[in-house]
């Protein structure tokens, strides 16, 4: 670009010299008191030529001023930790597509003690790492590049709480591994009770002692209270779900700065009716209640508790929608993990569970941000655990490999959260 400008200067002013000489030939120079020379033009032609010269110079100056900004060097855009001035609503993070990005993944799961062995697909024998090289690109905006150190500084003194099922635990693990890349002394990050990560434990809490930051996980797969079968219940009733009462560990979620919920994967016939679990409302057994109706009733119980308990001035609340699985076959028992993201969603970009979550949240008094990850996960048939878990005999097309898709949920979560500040 500099060469272009130099060439322009050389052409314009270099070619003017003969023209100027021609103009001056029409006049006679007169020296007045010193070194100042004035030109007196002796013919009409000289005046015309001078006028033409001035018009030419003015035109060139105008063109130069107008066009020059277009020749400024192009500055490559870089991703930085966000410092937003605009509102979150201006960016729909969940309308977009996956693009390849060789700067990913953000961490090595084998170097993170909080990533479950069952989710570390590369360590469990998966040979292609291409599934880790994809970044979600929203249609009308950018998700700022993750900067672990800067996020840790902004989160200093905070408590982040995840509540939900194993997909919530996956996101919890992902966030910890992402943030650990910004910690020099890895020993300063530890589980507060010295517990190892297991599938059934109800509480796990990791502390980043150098930043006085805690990231907790509470296992509550239904969000409401499970209970025994009531007296005189039919033999098929083995247990119940009290959909009008929130989980009995609910008070442990209150003292938090960021609160992220999820639920949905256990709201299926195989996890409920086939296991003899039915719904209970006010002590009354609801044998004929559909699962979607029960889920909506349970979410209203959750919403009512949130509206009356959470201090919205302190706590930012999020609810992540249903995560797309990619089971196939007649009974949806086949798990075929692809090598690349799917080009089509196959209808997995919609979910009745997600629709109910969005509907209930819209009617709430306390502001809740919906992390609508259902559409973005629909394309990622390549990113599931498959047979690369700690139990390869049981294929898994529900959970995600780490690093992978849950990292993107956390990038969106952090971008969304920091934009408010």
TrEMBL record:
<keyword id="KW-0472">Membrane</keyword>
<dbReference type="InterPro" id="IPR029962">
    <property type="entry name" value="TBL"/>
</dbReference>
<keyword id="KW-1133">Transmembrane helix</keyword>
<dbReference type="InterPro" id="IPR025846">
    <property type="entry name" value="TBL_N"/>
</dbReference>
<feature type="domain" description="Trichome birefringence-like N-terminal">
    <location>
        <begin position="90"/>
        <end position="142"/>
    </location>
</feature>
<keyword id="KW-0735">Signal-anchor</keyword>
<feature type="transmembrane region" description="Helical">
    <location>
        <begin position="47"/>
        <end position="67"/>
    </location>
</feature>
<dbReference type="Pfam" id="PF13839">
    <property type="entry name" value="PC-Esterase"/>
</dbReference>
<comment type="similarity">
    <text>Belongs to the PC-esterase family. TBL subfamily.</text>
</comment>
<dbReference type="GO" id="GO:0005794">
    <property type="term" value="C:Golgi apparatus"/>
</dbReference>
<feature type="domain" description="Trichome birefringence-like C-terminal">
    <location>
        <begin position="143"/>
        <end position="415"/>
    </location>
</feature>
<dbReference type="GO" id="GO:0016413">
    <property type="term" value="F:O-acetyltransferase activity"/>
</dbReference>
<dbReference type="GO" id="GO:0016020">
    <property type="term" value="C:membrane"/>
</dbReference>
<keyword id="KW-0812">Transmembrane</keyword>
<dbReference type="Pfam" id="PF14416">
    <property type="entry name" value="PMR5N"/>
</dbReference>
<dbReference type="InterPro" id="IPR026057">
    <property type="entry name" value="TBL_C"/>
</dbReference>
<protein>
    <recommendedName>
        <fullName>Trichome birefringence-like N-terminal domain-containing protein</fullName>
    </recommendedName>
</protein>
């Amino acid at each position: 670009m500099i060469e272009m400008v130099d060439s322009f200067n050389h052409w314009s002013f270099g070619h003017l010299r003969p023209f100027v000489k021609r103009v001056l030939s029409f006049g006679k120079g007169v020296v007045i008191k010193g070194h100042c020379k004035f030109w007196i033009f002796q013919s009409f032609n000289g005046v015309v030529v001078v006028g033409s010269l001035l018009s030419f110079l003015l035109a060139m100056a105008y063109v130069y001023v107008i066009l020059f900004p277009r020749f400024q060097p192009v500055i490559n855009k870089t991703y930085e930790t966000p410092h937003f001035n605009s509102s979150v609503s201006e960016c729909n993070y969940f309308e977009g597509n996956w693009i390849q990005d060789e700067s990913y993944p953000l961490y090595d799961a084998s170097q993170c003690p909080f990533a479950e062995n069952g989710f570390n697909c590369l360590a469990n024998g998966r040979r292609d790492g291409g599934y880790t090289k994809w970044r979600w690109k929203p249609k009308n905006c950018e998700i700022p590049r993750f900067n672990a150190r800067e996020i840790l500084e902004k989160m200093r003194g905070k408590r982040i709480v995840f509540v939900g099922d194993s997909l919530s635990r996956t996101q919890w693990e992902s966030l910890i591994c992402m943030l650990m890349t910004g910690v020099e002394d890895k020993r300063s990050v530890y589980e507060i009770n010295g517990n190892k990560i297991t599938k059934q434990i109800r509480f796990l809490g990791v502390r980043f002692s150098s930043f006085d930051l805690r990231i907790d996980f509470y296992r509550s797969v239904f969000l409401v209270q499970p209970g025994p079968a009531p007296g005189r219940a039919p033999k098929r009733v083995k247990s119940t779900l009290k959909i009008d009462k929130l989980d009995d560990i609910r008070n442990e979620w209150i003292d938090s700065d960021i609160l992220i919920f999820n639920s949905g994967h256990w709201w299926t016939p195989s996890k409920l009716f086939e296991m003899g679990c039915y719904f209970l409302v006010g002590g009354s057994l609801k044998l004929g209640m559909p699962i979607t109706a029960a889920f909506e009733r349970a979410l209203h119980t959750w919403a009512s508790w949130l509206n009356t308990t959470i201090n919205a001035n302190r706590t930012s609340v999020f609810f992540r929608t249903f995560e797309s699985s990619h089971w196939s076959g007649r009974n949806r028992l086949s798990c075929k993990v692809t090598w690349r993201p799917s080009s089509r969603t196959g209808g997995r970009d919609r979910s009745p569970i997600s629709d109910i979550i969005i509907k209930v949240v819209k009617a709430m008094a306390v502001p809740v941000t919906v992390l609508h990850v259902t559409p973005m996960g629909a394309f990622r048939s390549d990113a599931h655990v498959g047979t690369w878990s700690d139990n390869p005999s049981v294929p898994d097309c529900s959970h995600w490999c780490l690093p992978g898709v849950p990292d993107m949920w956390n990038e969106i979560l952090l971008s969304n959260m920091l934009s408010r500040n």
